[in-house]
Fold:
Amino acid sequence: MPMPMPLSRLFGLLAAGLLALPATAVSPPAAPSPSDPAAPLTPAALAEARALRERALNDDTAYELIRSLTTEVGPRLAGSPGDARAVEWAVRNLKALGFANVRAEPVTVPRWIRGEARAEIVAPWPQTLMVAALGGSVATPEGGLEAEVVPVTSLDDLKAQPRERIAGRIVFFTGRMARSQDGSGYGKTVPPRGTGAAEAAKLGAVAMVMRSAGTSSGRTPHTGAQRVANGIPPIPALALSNPDGDMLERQLATGQPVRLRLVNTSRWDGEAQSANVIGEIPGRSHKDEVILLGAHLDSWDLGTGAHDDGSGVAIVTAAAKLIGDLKQRPKRTLRVVLYANEEFGLSGGKAYAAAYQGAIDKHVLGLESDLGAFRPFGLSARVGPDRLPLVRAMQSVLEPLGVAYTGTEASGGADLGPLRELGMPVMDLDTDAIPYFDLHHTAEDTFDKVDPALVRQNVAAFAAIAYLAAEAEGGFGRLPVAPKPAEQPKP
Ligand SMILES: [Zn+2]
Structure:
């Protein structure tokens, strides 16, 4: 059955404020029957895809790439030394795996230095809280700041407050993320992270703290990018772990004034050079037609970005490598694009779209892996309506992996957003977001949380889909070109 677009697929765009909702969404056509003839795919192509799927289920190339990236590079915050090492790592590994046309295309990224963040309740009952600065947070004044806390449940709740209640105080966003397989709780909880500090600053707040936009019950706060409103001096913005958010709420619930003391030393440090790293498996006949497999090379800095998005980097790379090893390669070229700086404003996604917009019609289909390496359960596709029988034929190859057809509301992932807006068809492999949001953007996103069997399942799905997309006669149609989103302020 067609399902609404999983909000998990939109979180990056929503968080970056680049997308309200898919503006060009049309009511989905009824799912075609699986018995429709899949003329664009020959029986031989379907058999090859099934064989690829089985080979991937016995191949640990992706798992070993995640081990290597997390161990030898580690955190890869845009503009950091780890980011530069990641670019070198990716170029070296794509070459070693036999990719053609391996290149690092320069991308300018903002650089932000985390520094140290501390928080304590000073009254009524002193307690230390576990916090992390949100990406882009400014520092507290030297020596820190102390003020009374005002809880609000949401951005709307904040905006409804009189200025005198907020001015001179620390705003606390209490919203708690709900668990769900499609990750839709994230899209509902994350807006204060993006603009909460800026909205609080408008009302004269001296700082903002929020309950983490994640489901972890550990004392590991969730970081992530925020945006700064033009013209308003920014205020420090910190995330509390869920148990620490509970502590603050319990003290507030007594009705006594609660005072917080915050120290944060993070700062902006200009710009840096990073790169989109690209490698290709050239097609056997339609070399100029591209199936784009995306993931992002950067990560947050609290963990080692094992799931976000080390797993995606590894999954798309290993899937393309398996196809490159075939005796007969598919017709079209597979292009792996490992994007720079997804987390801090989609620098790589925007740079790629700007560089390749003249060749957008040669981008036949795009897929991105950016929801960790968890259990795949769905395949959705935003393609020309007459191409849905082809999608169903492709999905049938994933049935043994437990992957059902989940409709037409695919997003393609954050990095592919600018290409989708230019009309490139996209597919999503939907994976279980419940464990993902326990780890996402926290210090717990580390290699030990990666299950090799689940990595293999993801590679199997990507390899089969990418192969069939590269082989299918006639492509996937084109999408309506979306109106250009308004220019966003720099993070
Ligand atoms: Zn990501």
User: Anything to note?
Assistant: The CA atoms of residues 151 and 323 lie 53 Å apart.
